[in-house]
Each structure stands twice: as structure tokens, then as C-alpha cells.
Specification:
The complex is a heterodimer of chains A (272) and B (266). With 272 residues, chain A is an all-alpha fold. Chain A is 76% helix and 1% strand. Chain A contains eleven helices and two strands; from the N terminus they run ααββααααααααα. In chain A, helix 7 packs antiparallel against helix 10. The chains are: A mainly alpha (272), B mainly alpha (266).
Chain lengths: 272, 266
Amino acid sequence: MKRKLRIYFPFINAGLQEATTYRANWFFMILGNVLGCFVSYFIWNAVFLSGGNDTMNGFTMPQMVVYIFLMFLTSTLISSGGTYDIGEEIRDGSISMRMIKPISYNSTFLFQELGNKIMTVCILIIPLVLGVEICRTIFTGEIQFNIIGFLLYIISCVFAYLINFFFNICFGFIAFVIKYLWGANMMKNCIVGFLSGTMIPFTFLPDFLEKLFLFLPFASLNYTPVMIYMGMYSGTELLFYMGLQLFWVLVFWGLSKLLWRVATKHLCVQGG
Amino acid sequence: MKNIKRMLRMHRIFVSQEIKRMMEYKGDFIVGIIGFLLGQFFNLLFLWIIFSQIPSLVGWTLEQVIFIYGFSLIPKGLDHLLFDNLWSIGHFTVRKGDFDKYLTRPINPLFHVMVEKLQIDALGELIMGIALICVTLPTLAIEWSVVKIILILLVIPFATLIYTAIKIATAAIAFWTKRSGNITYMFYMVNDFAKYPVTIYNNFVKAVITYIIPFAFTAFYPANYILTGENPLFNIGLTVVISLVLLVISVLIWNRGIKAYESAGS
């Protein structure tokens, strides 16, 4: 364990340094995405005004605000760039440099990204959660923040991040088939975005689609943590959905190992 | 005059190079187009689901909203198709020191950057935009006149110019900071506001997307003119004026930036 830490600590450090070097650039990207949240906010605001009801499919407007901004927070926390990195390395052949080193391929990525995440976590969570909670308190007239819900949300986010991480590694192997990763990645992001509930809560969908989507691995990415934060799940339901998250972590972890084995056998690096 | 002729010829050469490159990687180019089509498809699905719950969006019907949405994709797609290369200046060209190449060639660097690449992915947006307009037009009672059609055709290049000008200005920031890709991204994201009727926003947002980062002129205002025929002076006239003002400002920023540029890296 100690030895492992010693091996991987430099990767965490490298990730953190990378993140802090380009923090201005990162900050502008986050600002751009927050603007996107405000577009959603205004659309939903207009929808609730036009609908005339206080609740729509189990959501009130204050809850919708929490939903929109928590979705954004969750997506940012659990984002993972594995697809692009692995694909690029397959393409340019630098993957071979990783293969000759006596350390795990996935782990180096994981730890580097964790270092990168430290900044996101430190800078983003407090202002966003605080902002959302202040809004909610003003809207409803009472404090709704639930510390246990928040802690469960964090745990759920860790599971979600791991699912996303291993899923993206698996998807990265698509570079063996499709060379244009940017396009493939874009397609993936659109589909995953919708299926993980970032655009619209599942309760707005027809019944059978809602049930189907809840069981797909994508709901475990964004939807489950946000629902947990909002206190929509309790008791056995909570256990079930977190169990489902754990199940998907294991599935994609196994799949990424398997694909790695298959891929390395077939890997043919052009040039050097 | 001779200069413009030369530029047009250069443009043709660049485009034909790009098309050769695309033919080499046919699969990629289909993947890119499908990617962008899919993105638009899910946005539409979102609108459709929302409208199944409410009669109208603060007075706008589904057809009208989709028409505005479709129209917004035309200038966006055109800029994306023709001038996508501006993104790379802020993302990596300046940082890696590759910008030197543009300065050593006997053509205007800004022109060279703009026409160097053709981003065929944008066809996804353009196809979707045209399809949405075609589907919704027959359901909307629009009064047509020759003047109106001329004004609409006239306004599209100017609306496109708003996108391009904002990209030029924000890309030029990289000449001072080495990296500005995400500043471009931040400004570019504001265009999301313009895809929907501006009447859903509060006055502050309305003022910002009308006068400060004027994306509302790329979509809602011209589309509103098509739908209602009202206020051509504001909806069309101001689009032209604002886009030209923006272009002048952005070229000034670009030129100052080039003067400040110091090659980076090794």
C-alpha cells in the first residue's frame, strides 16, 4: 500500500500542477457552462409560468433550480477525459511507452485525473451548493439543507466518477475503429447527456422510458447523485440505487480490463 | 480589386485542399456530421417533451419556437463551416508557437487563418436548421413579399458575421495571454440564449444578448421579423449595423494583438 502510494503520488501531483497552471482557462470554461445553466433556468421558468401549476411531474420550480445546478455540479465533478487521452495514445503510438512501464495503465490515468479534480472540488462545491441552498431558502422560506443527504451525494459522486472513468476508458478503445475521436466523442456525449438526465428529469418522460433509463448505467452517472441530494430517494430505494451504482462500477472496471487485454494483443503501432 | 481576386483564388485553393483531405477520411466526416445532428436532435426532443406538458411557452407555439431554433442554426452553421479554424488560435496555435507560420507568408494572417480549414461537421447543423425551417414554415401563417425575402437573404451573412467577429476578438486575446480558447468558449456559449424567444428572459439578460454580446441578432430578432413582419428597422437593420461594428472592433483588436505577439515555445 505504502509502495503504491509512493508510485502514484507523483501522478496526483502532476495532475494538480497541470490544473493550477491553466486555472484561468479552466475558470472561463466553467463560466461558459454556468451560462448554459442559466439558459435552462429561464426556459424552465417560462415553462412553469406557462403551465400554470406549482408542480410538474413531481418538481416545483425551486426544486428545478436545484436540479439544474446540481446536474451541472455533478457533471463537472465526475467528468473524465479518458476517451480522448487513450484514443490519442493509440493513434500516435505513445501507448507503447505506457506498456513498457511496470505500473498499471488505468491507475496512472486515474491518479493524474484525481490530482486535476482537487481544484474543481475545492473551488466549485462550496459556492455552488451555498448558492443553491440560499436560493432554495429564499424561495421556500425555510432551510432545506440536509447534511446526511449531502454526504451521501458525495459518496454517490465517487461511484459515478468511477463508472464514468472506466466507461470512458472502454469507449476510448473505439479509436481502433473510428479515427475521428472528436466526432465520436461528441456523439457519445449527446447520448450519455440525455440518458443521464442532464437535459430533463426522467419523470417528464413516458413511464416505460423512465423505468428503462433508471436501470441503464447512465442514470448512475448524474441522475442518482442528484436525486440523492434532493432527498428523492430514501430507505431501500436509496440502498438499491447506490447498489446499482456499485454494480456498474464493477461491470465497467471488468470490461476495461478485458478490452485492454484484447486491444494490446491487436495493437499495431505505426511508426514509433 | 486585384487583391480581392487573389484572395478568392487563394480561398478556392484552400477549400479544394480541404476537400481532398476529407475524401481521404470519409468515415470521420460522416461521424462528425452525425455527431452534430444528434446534438440538435436531443435539444428538439427536449422542446417536444416540454411542449407536451404546456399549451404554449409564454405565448409562443411549438412551431414558432422550433422555427426560431432552426433559423439560429443557419448563421451558426455557416460560421462553423467556414471559419472554424479561429478556435485553434486560442487553443494551441499561439501557445505552441505555430502562429509564426502565418506571419511569414505573403497573405494577410487573419484571412489565412480564417480560410485555412473547412469544418464539414457543421453540415450537421446546417442540414438540421434547413430541415426545421422547411417543416415548420407551412404551419406558420407568414405573409410573404419580395422585400421580405430580399431582407432575409441579406441578413444571413451579417448574422454569421456576428459569430465570426466574436471569435476573432476572443481568439486575438491569445496574442497577449498565449491561451484564450476557453474565453472564446465562454462567449460562444452565450449563443444558447439566442436560440429561444428572448421574451422568456429578464431585462438584464435581454440587454446583454442584445447590446453587449449581441447573439440575439443572430437568431431571434431576424426570425421574429420573418414570423411577424414587424419592425424591420430594428430586427434587420440593427443586425447589419451591429455586425459591422463588431467586425471593425474585432479586427482592431486582432491587429493590436499581432503587434503584441511574441513567438512562444522553442
